[in-house]
Structure formats: structure tokens, C-alpha cells
Write a structure and sequence with these properties.
GO terms for molecular function: hydrolase activity, acting on glycosyl bonds. About 20% of the residues lie in helices and about 25% in strands. By secondary structure, the protein is of the alpha+beta class. Among the domains are: about 200 residues, Exo-inulinase, domain 1 (Jelly Rolls); about 450 residues, Glycosyltransferase (Alpha/alpha barrel). The strands form 15 sheets. The chain has an eleven-stranded mixed beta sheet with strand order 21-22-23-2-25-28-37-30-31-32-33, with no helix packed on it.
Length: about 1100
């Protein structure tokens, strides 16, 4: 082989190995667990409910504790016949020390469980039995129960339970060495009774003749036999027998002693397997063979403990395991494809004191198992897992799906609105048999009579630096017990603590000492308000409206993301240095302490942070854009918000946005960055400029009226309303109380824009205060620019569109511009009249709008060109121009196929479609681009002013008309060109106008053109592309115009709309925002709408 070929072959092999490695389960996240802390310093997923279902008690044997047996472990879970089934093995005190049996518990809801009943009883090993290589023999010896798989739901709907009887001749003998007795099965019937026990598998030394139960084929129940045969025929079940089965039994697919197998199915049908130590492989034939070598999942930290993997109901994947060399904490990692896992969050981070030591007993929540594929799906579609703590007490965890790593909304919780605990999907619960959490009317109740443990509830909130927490609090006693209230960061570090002590004190911790707040009385309700400032490291407590105390934080934190209530002090034992084995019994291990009860009601949190309105995004993640924009220039003109304050201003004012196509994202922030450059402080309030450089034809303060409509539409999304309030007032009242002198030099759709602003902010008072100004402006236009035929005239330069094909600087032609504007203004004033109940006003302007509509359709529609065109006298200008789409900006045309035909021109390269966007005149016209260059020509070159109008009109047409001409692909394509066109010399840029073929800005190197504020972009992003359609009512309407497959994700966040905070997000596979796949709409962080696809969603009456 030649050297070149050798290198090629080696490279190909290397690539194949690399691809193969990535085709196995692996972890690429950055979060790791710190075992020094019981919770690993992991942030919990939202809404996990950890429920203790069985508490061991040797001193007081009873049916509810398995009759006093204290080694309990290896639980299995199924959902069948409308309820949960959980079975686990149990020994009197130690692992691998008989006797041994399997208990079964059931639950309708996962929270309330039946007492354990024996499913597989104690089994006697035949006297004289021994194992190869040993001389000792069994005498009065019972078998050891063991199982790696617990349930099977047959094709006919039978529920089969299974277990295994092994043999341990002494406490260090391995009962799972292939020298056991065999595997047994038993049917669980719908009425709760059990069928007979049968063997389904015998180990090499046993058969029907020397065992107590028959082989399953002896059953006369044919369906039962068939169900058992299904198990034997299923390699996924046989694979879970490997430890107990005969060594090298051909029945087992993979003859390796990998322990605690589980699996799940990928969409392509392949199986993913996981074993102890996070070993993993792939099977492409249903589990009959497995890819070799079997190796540890890269990036996973998992010692000699079990790991559970499952495909969730939303199509994502989860692994639940102990991510350390210890059996704590219990954590969850998520994946969008079942192979690459990217997150790590807490499920269970408490370690109850081990009350009863014993053989191989380990500290922590361990041996986690969920519901195996085929064994049922709970109706809530959530992830349920079961496990033991300390191999002593049995637990289940309820994890809501989609699995949420972060809270999107602050708390406003009236517990009277909840009937059952499972409805508390925003609260994390730690509820025990002797320290239960419950609901009682308006109260969330924590009770505690457990000498060794406590009840705990926790509300996860968006990470907050300036936090206010309020709640009602009642203790039913003040002479015993302890309630701790802590405020935690994402790593579980408490910055401050409040306590109700056993000597009747309500106190606050500050450093090593406490400050007393008051003496509390039993049975009395206290209204508690807590203000926490991360910046000042200070907590201030108010009780019943009066300041009770103030303390410094005892630990600094970057932000607070959890508020926790706990009926006991935090534990630190065991530690990483605690010996692995302990055989003692704690004093009073089975005893209770006096019952203490605490009640919490009306829990609420609020944030005073700048980004408090954002549920998912943080401004800091987008600040690098602003830093880059600032670095692009030497700021030679600064107005009200200079570059030095640009970032702060944007953090305080703009909606946040991200998407998978980063040029859109960059342009979004660039256009906000440029917009604030034009906010100008004047003696009469804020104004907004068009040019930064002074223009001789401008009004006072260098203001130009041409793009007021654009300015209002773009600025209506600013969170601080004062900017736009003052900008509008400056135009209408800034000239000695009247309108600016040159306001009528340019056409206006201001009344429509002001109403459009109201549709976003809902500020009725401001809108109504402007009515007289808007009516006066309308009257001025009627007086000066109305033709005898009822239409309105305008010179093209007064439209801001000089050197056009159809018009002239002094020509009084009836143009689609001003006539559409006047229609839009009249329609707006009519709607205001309807809103205020002024029937006269509503009718007056409604009739004006109807008249203009009729005239525009009758006289400006060119039936030959299928287009709205300028009318010169009594004849059409016979040219299609972009202004012919402006009627749809105001939804003027009737829904008619004849009018719809006009939109075909945006897709025609002879019409308006050009490499860098939409031209201002049709490209086929002989006068296209014939008026020269550099004189602000509107004879075909691309003007963002016109692009913004056309794209707004296009979005209206696609949303408000039953049309079939345009698709979201057309809209997206034009928005994409708009984004791409806004660059000059390799950097973001917005100027006056550009060449339609080369994309060159025709005044790009002139100072006047930089940052030209003459168009909208972000309003198009919000209302068109993302599809938030502003309305006057309390319904949120969203209709994204993004083709399926274009973006994997987007999020529009921190939108102040009708006084509420809106979030709209799309997550193709659910992995980006962990809220499930699809389109989601939130109000104040709470979901109000969802669709699986990018489609119109109406969320009625949610504001």
C-alpha cells in the first residue's frame, strides 16, 4: 500500500471510531455533582415530588412497615389497570442474609400507597445443597430474593410479576453467581388477587422435581402460558437475567456479567442499553446482539450504582442515577436524541439517617427504576421512578414532563386553588410517612413527628437579585419543633434563614448569631414579607406590615432561585469520609417525637431586577452584541442614550430574542442599538430623529415627520412607555403647545400608529388623551390634500419617495400612500369612537374610511396590471410600485382573488423580487433605475422604508385574508434578504437605500446615511416572523411565519404586552428550553398556549 493510501485508510478508521463513539450514550454537559454536599450542589428540576411510601421500623412491626423487616431494596415499577404497582425485596436486617421475600404495594395516584403484601414468599433451599467449589452445605437455609426486572404486561394485557430466588451460603456469598434456584413468575389480577407461583427459569441444579413450584407450562391458563413465553422470547427481558442465570447460558444475549441492565428505544428502532457504572451499548436487532466493546458512557460519572434510562412522553430522553462515586445525590440528565446528554439536575438530595445498619447497606437514594417500555404509561405522562434510601425505606419520585430545569414564573400561589398534591407542579416536595406534606384548604401543611427526618417544600423561582417574598405562616405549637425558611441559590447555598424555634422565637440568622424578630403564638396567622437584596447582602423582614428586623446575609450568593421550608435542621452526615459499612442501630430508631404542624398560605414572590419580565432569556447573554456594536465606531454624535449607556438602556427596555439563525439574532439587537441613538432630549421632552446629522429641512430639534409611523410602530415595544409618550407629545404639542410646524410636510399614518401602540401597551388613558390631536391632524389633511373626486393627493417627495416613476415633487397625484394612510387613520379614529362609546365619532370616521376604501378600489386598482397604482388625473400611471402594497398595511382591500393577484409580483424577478430584497418599482418597467444614483431615487432601488411597509402589509395579508398566493416561505425569504441587506463593509449597517443587485448602500459612506431611522425591523420580527398579532382584547394571538424546518428554536421574551409579560418560544425537539416540543406561549411565565407545529394559536382571555 502506498504511503498516501495508508494515511487515507488510517484517517478513515479514525473517523469511523469517532463516529462510533458519538453513536453511544455520552454526556457533554458541564454540570458536575459535588458529593461533599448531599444534593451535589445541583439545581433541582422544577416540581419533583419525593414521596416516602414505606418507612422501616424494627421496634414496632406492623403491616405498613413490612412487619418490621429493615433491609428493603430493589424496587420495580409498573402502571396497569389504572394504578401503580411497585414491588421490592425485603430481608429482616441485611443484604444477602436470609430469609428474604418480595413485597408489593399499589397506588391509584402515586401519593397514597397500600400496605406491603407478600408477593413472593420466603423459599427454603433444599438441605444439602451446595455450590461448585464449596464444601459447606445448606441446612435450614432460606433463599435470597433478587430481581433486575420486575413486571411484564403481556400482549393480552396480563400483568406478570417476576423475581429470582438465589442462594447465599454465608453473608459474603454472592446469591447472583449463576448457582441460584431460578426465576419465578406470578400473575397479578385486576381484582388485586394473585395467581399461583411458577418457575419460568431454572438454574443448572434445579428443576421441577426438586423445587416447590411447577414450571409455567404446567398452568392450565393458556393466556398465562402465552404471556410467559412472550417473556422468554424477548431478549430485552432475558438480558436482565444475566446475573442470576447460569453462566454462558445461550438464552442470554450478551454473556458478560454487566449488572442492572435497562434499555430504551430510539426513533430508528435501535435499542440503547445501560448498566451499572454507566456502561452502554447499542443493539440494532431488538436486543439479540450488542455492539462491542461495551464501555462506560463518556462523560458520565457513576460508580457501582444503578442507572435508569427512559424515553419520555414528550419524545426526549432522561437518565436518572447517582452522578458520583457515592450513592448520592439522585440526579437526572436529559437528552434530545437519546445519545447525547447535556444537563444534570437534582431529583433527590436528602439522606435520611440510616437507623439500622447492616450487611452491604449504603447511604443515599439508590437503585432507581422507572416504568419499563410496555409496562404502562401513567395518565399524566410524567416520569415516575422508585428507589430505596439507605436500602431501608422505599420511595417514589414524580417528575413532571416536560422536565423543567428552570422556573419561568415567580410564585403567586393560593393553595386553595389546588385539590391534590400532584397539582403543585411548581413546588418540590419531600414528604415522609411521619413528616407528610399535605393540602388543607388555603394551607400547604408540613407536619413532623419523625425523630430523624423532616418535611421539606421548596419553590423554585427565576434567579433573582432583588427579591420580595410574602406568605402567611401559622405554627400550631410554639413549645417544640423547628421550622427553617431558607433562601437558596442554584447550588443550594442559603444566603439567609428565618426560623420558628422550639422556645417560641421567630428569628433571623445573620452570621454566627441570630436576631430575634418576635415571639410567635400558636394558632396565630402571621403575614410575613421578606425583602432580599443580593447587591446589599441584606434581608429585611416585615411581620403584619411592620418592620421586624434586618440582618446581613450569612453567605453571599449571585442570585436567589429557591425558597425552602423545612421542619428540621439541615444534615451533613454522612460525609465523603464516612466509612462504607455500619452495623449499629440508632437509639430510639423506631420511635416518634411529638407532632409539630406548620402552615403556609398565599405564597408570592416578585422581582425588582431589570430583567424581571423575562421568563427564559437573560440580557447578559446578548450583551456581547452591544459591546461589539459599540466597538464598531468612534461615537461622533451622541444623544439621550450614548453608547456608554446603550447596554443598560437595552437591558431595561427591549424584548429579548434568540434563534438558531444567528444573523437574524444579531440584526435584532443591532436595530435596537441604532434606534436608541435617535432618542433625543429636547426642551419639551424626548423626540426621535431620522438623521443623526442636522438637516436643513428638518423641524425643531432636527426632527423630520416622514417616518413617525415607523418610529411609533418600532418603539411601541419598549418597556418604558415614557420614551414614546414624550416622542408623540413632542410632535403634537411641542411647538408652543401645538404640533410641530413641519409636521404636515410629510404624509402621515400617525393615528393608525398610535392605535397600534395602544394594541401593545393597552394604555387607554394616553390614547384618549391624543384623540383631539389626531382628529385635528386628520382635518388638516382633509383641508389641504383632498381632491374633488374624494381621493387624496400627494407629491412623491412629501411621501418621502422622491424621484419615483409615478410621481413628482410637485405633482398632485392620487397615490396609494396617502389614500391608504387616510383610510388607516379614519379606521383608527372610528375604532376609538367604538371603544369609548362615542357613536357619532365611530360613525363619522367609519363612513370616511368606507368612502376611501371604495375610491381606492374603484380608481387606484389597475385591472390590467392587477395592482394598486398612482392615478395621474383620470388615468393610471401604468407602473407597479411598492406603494401598491400599502393598502394591505391597513387591511383596506376586500378579500378577493382579483386583489390577491398583486402579491404574485413579490415572487417575480420581473416584478419586485431582487437579490437583496424588494424593489420600489417593478423591474420590468422601462424607467426602472433611470433617474440616476445618489439623489434618493425611488425608481427601483431598495428602500428599507418601503420594505418595512411591504413586509407589514404582507404579514397582514397572510394573517387576515383567506389567501393562497403566499406561504410562510415567501415571507421568511424576504425577511432573510432584509437581514442580509443590512450590512456594509462586513458589519451590520442601516442606511437610506441600496442597490437591488449588489447590495451596495448607495449613500453608505456618507455620514448622513449611518443609522438612518427610516424603517421598522423589530416590529416585523415580532408581529410578522414570530407572529405576535397585537389586538385590542384580552386574547393573545400568535401566528409565526417561519417555515417548518428553518429554525430549531427561537424565543421572544420580556415582551410587555397589555401590562403583562409575554414569552413566545419554539423548540423543535424540546431540548433548548425544556418545556416540551413545539410552540409555547407564556403570560407572566405561565403557559397559556401550545401547538406542536408552527401554526396560529389563539389564547383567549388570558390577559
Amino acid at each position: 500500500m502506498e504511503l498516501k493510501q495508508l494515511f487515507t485508510f488510517a484517517a478513515a478508521c479514525s473517523l469511523a471510531l469517532s463516529v462510533s463513539a458519538q453513536d453511544r450514550v455520552h454526556y457533554t454537559g458541564t454540570e458536575l455533582s459535588n458529593p461533599t454536599y448531599h444534593d451535589g450542589q445541583l439545581s433541582p428540576v422544577v416540581g419533583v415530588h419525593n414521596i416516602q411510601v414505606m418507612r422501616a421500623n424494627r421496634e414496632h412491626p406492623a403491616p405498613d412497615n413490612g412487619n418490621g423487616w429493615t433491609y428493603n431494596h430493589q424496587s420495580m415499577l409498573a402502571y396497569w389497570n389504572g394504578q401503580f404497582y411497585m414491588h421490592y425485596l425485603s430481608d429482616p436486617s441485611d443484604e444477602h442474609i436470609p430469609p428474604s421475600q418480595t413485597f408489593l404495594m399499589t397506588s391509584k395516584d402515586g401519593y397514597h400507597w397500600t400496605n406491603p403484601v407478600t408477593l413472593f414468599p420466603i423459599y427454603r433451599v433444599p438441605d444439602g445443597y451446595t455450590k461448585p467449589g464449596r464444601t459447606d452445605k445448606a441446612k435450614d437455609l432460606d433463599a435470597i430474593m433478587h430481581q433486575r426486572v420486575g413486571f411484564y404486561v403481556s400482549k393480552s394485557g396480563r400483568l406478570i410479576a417476576m423475581g429470582n430466588y438465589g442462594v447465599a451460603l454465608d453473608k459474603k456469598d454472592d446469591p447472583n453467581d449463576g448457582n441460584g434456584i431460578g426465576r419465578v413468575v406470578r400473575e397479578i389480577k385486576k381484582d388485586g388477587s394473585f395467581g399461583p407461583i411458577y418457575f419460568i427459569y431454572y438454574n443448572h441444579a434445579f428443576n421441577e422435581k426438586n423445587t416447590s413450584y411447577p414450571y409455567f407450562k404446567r398452568s392450565k391458563d393458556k393466556e398465562f402460558v402465552k404471556a410467559c413465553q412472550e417473556i422468554l422470547d424477548n431478549p430485552r427481558y432475558r438480558m436482565q437475567w444475566v446475573e442470576e442465570a447460569d453462566r454462558n447460558d445461550p438464552l442470554i444475549p450478551l454473556h458478560k456479567e454487566y449488572k442492572a441492565y435497562c434499555d430504551y428505544t430510539l426513533p430508528d428502532g435501535r435499542l440503547v442499553s445501560l448498566w451499572k457504572h454507566a456502561l452502554t451499548s447499542i443493539s440494532e436487532d431488538g436486543g439479540n446482539t450488542w455492539a462491542q466493546p461495551v464501555e462506560r458512557a463518556k462523560g458520565f460519572v457513576n460508580s457501582n450504582a444503578k442507572i435508569w434510562g427512559q424515553r419520555l412522553s414528550d419524545g426526549t430522553y432522561a437518565t436518572v442515577y447517582n452522578p458520583s462515586e457515592f450513592r448520592w445525590p439522585l440526579a437526572i440528565s436529559l437528552s434530545k436524541d437519546g445519545l447525547e446528554y447535556t444537563t444534570l439536575n437534582l431529583v433527590h438530595g436528602e439522606i435520611t439517617p440510616m437507623r439500622y445498619g447492616g450487611n452491604y447497606k449504603s447511604f443515599g437514594p439508590q437503585y432507581v427504576r422507572g416504568i419499563q417500555e410496555g409496562n404502562g404509561t401513567p395518565p399524566d405522562g410524567d416520569l415516575w421512578v422508585t428507589y430505596s434510601v439507605n436500602k431501608e425505606d422505599m420511595w417514589v419520585s414524580h417528575i413532571p414532563v416536560p422536565v423543567r430545569a428552570h422556573a419561568s414564573a415567580h410564585a403567586d400561589d393560593n393553595f386553595a386553588n389546588y385539590k391534590d398534591l400532584n397539582e403543585l407542579t411548581d413546588w418540590n416536595l419531600y414528604s415522609l410517612q411521619w413528616a407528610p406534606v399535605s393540602l388543607d384548604g388555603k394551607w400547604l401543611v408540613l407536619q413532623d413527628k419523625d425523630l430523624f427526618d423532616y418535611a421539606r417544600v421548596e419553590r423554585k423561582i427565576p434567579a433573582t437579585k432583588e427579591l420580595k417574598v410574602s406568605f402567611e405562616l401559622m405554627a400550631e405549637q410554639n413549645d417544640k419543633g423547628l421550622l427553617q425558611i431558607e433562601f437558596l441559590d442554584e447550588n443550594g447555598i442559603a444566603c439567609s434563614r428565618l426560623e420558628l424555634t422550639s422556645d417560641g422565637l421567630f428569628r433571623a440568622k445573620g452570621g454566627a448569631r441570630f436576631g430575634n424578630l418576635l415571639k410567635y403564638e400558636p394558632g396565630k396567622t402571621y403575614k410575613v414579607e421578606v425583602e432580599l437584596s443580593v447587591a446589599n447582602r441584606m434581608v429585611t423582614v416585615y411581620v403584619d406590615g411592620k418592620k421586624a428586623g434586618q440582618r446581613m446575609f450569612f453567605a453571599p450568593v449571585p442570585a436567589i432561585e429557591r425558597v425552602m421550608f423545612r421542619t428540621g435542621a439541615q444534615r451533613t452526615y454522612p460525609t465523603v469520609d464516612t466509612p462504607a459499612d455500619w452495623y449499629g442501630i440508632l437509639p430510639n430508631a423506631g420511635e416518634q417525637e411529638p407532632l409539630c404542624t406548620y402552615r403556609i398560605a398565599n405564597f408570592k414572590t416578585t422581582s425588582a431586577d431589570k430583567d424581571a419580565g423575562a421568563a427564559f432569556l437573560k440580557y447578559k447573554d446578548f450583551k456581547p452584541y452591544v459591546d461589539y456594536f459599540n466597538s464598531m465606531e468612534d461615537e461622533n454624535i451622541a444623544q439621550a442614550v450614548p453608547n456608554a449607556r446603550a447596554s443598560q438602556w437595552m437591558e431595561e427596555n427591549i424584548p429579548l430574542f434568540e434563534c438558531s439563525q444567528k444573523n437574524f439574532e444579531e440584526m435584532y439587537y443591532y436595530r435596537w442599538w441604532t434606534l436608541r441613538k435617535h432618542i433625543k432630549e429636547t426642551p419639551v421632552g424626548y423626540g426621535m430623529t431620522e438623521f443623526l446629522v442636522n438637516r436643513s429641512y428638518a423641524d425643531k430639534y432636527n426632527l423630520i415627520a416622514c417616518a413617525i409611523g415607523h418610529h411609533i410602530y418600532e418603539s411601541r415595544w419598549l418597556r418604558n412607555p415614557e420614551y414614546l409618550n414624550q416622542i408623540i407629545h413632542t410632535w403634537y404639542r411641542g411647538n408652543e403647545g401645538g404640533p410641530m410646524a413641519k409636521m404636515t410636510k410629510f404624509s402621515s399614518w400617525n393615528a393608525d400608529a398610535v392605535l397600534g401602540r395602544y394594541m401593545v401597551d393597552g394604555n387607554k388613558e394616553f390614547l384618549l388623551d391624543m384623540v383631539k390631536d389626531l382628529e385635528a391632524e386628520y382635518a388638516r389633511w382633509e383641508k389641504t390634500n383632498r381632491l374633488s373626486n374624494g381621493l387624496y393627493w400627494q407629491g412623491d417627495v412629501q411621501d418621502g419617495m422622491e424621484e419615483s416613476i409615478s410621481g413628482g415633487r410637485r405633482k398632485q397625484y392620487a397615490r396609494p400612500t396617502i389614500n391608504s394612510y387616510m383610510y388607516g387613520n379614519a379606521k383608527a379614529l372610528s375604532l376609538i369612537g367604538i371603544m369609548t362609546g362615542d357613536e357619532g365619532m365611530a360613525m363619522k370616521y367609519g363612513l370616511k374610511a368606507d368612502s376611501i376604501k371604495t375610491l381606492v378600489q374603484d380608481k387606484l386598482w389597475n385591472t390590467d396590471h392587477h395592482f394598486f397604482e398612482t392615478m395621474r388625473g383620470d388615468a393610471s400611471a401604468e407602473v407597479r410600485e411598492a406603494i401598491g402594497y400599502i393598502p394591505w398595511y391597513f387591511n383596506l382591500p376586500d378579500a378577493s382573488s382579483q386583489y390577491d393577484m398583486a402579491w404574485k409580483e413579490v415572487m417575480d424577478e420581473k416584478g419586485f423580487s431582487a437579490p437583496y430584497g424588494l424593489t420600489t418599482a417593478e423591474r420590468r418597467h422601462p424607467e426602472f433605475r433611470t433617474h440616476g444614483v445618489g439623489k434618493c431615487e425611488w425608481d427601483g432601488a431598495i428602500w428599507p422604508f418601503a420594505s418595512a411597509q411591504t413586509l407589514t402589509a404582507m404579514a397582514n395579508f397572510m394573517n387576515n385574508y383567506p389567501q393562497t398566493v403566499l406561504t410562510d416561505s415567501v415571507y421568511f425569504h424576504q425577511m432573510e434578504r432584509y437581514v442580509e441587506s443590512q450590512h456594509h463593509r462586513g458589519r451590520p449597517y442601516i442606511g437610506e437605500y441600496l442597490d437591488e443587485v449588489t447590495g451596495y448602500w448607495l449613500k453608505g459612506d456618507q455620514e448622513r446615511s449611518r443609522y438612518y431611522n427610516h424603517s421598522t425591523f423589530n416590529d416585523l420580527m415580532i408581529t410578522g416572523l414570530i407572529g405576535l398579532r397585537p389586538r385590542m382584547d384580552n386574547t393573545v394571538e400568535v401566528n409565526p411565519l417561519i417555515p417548518e424546518g428553518k429554525w430549531d428554536y427561537f424565543c421572544l421574551d420580556n415582551v410587555l404586552y397589555h401590562g403583562r409579560n409575554l414569552t413566545i418560544l419554539w423548540d423543535k425537539d424540546g431540548s433548548r428550553y425544556q418545556r416540551g416540543k413545539g410552540l409555547h406561549i407564556y403570560v407572566d411565565g405561565k403557559e397559556v398556549g401550545h401547538a406542536d407545529t408552527l401554526t396560529r394559536v389563539l389564547c383567549e382571555n388570558v390577559l
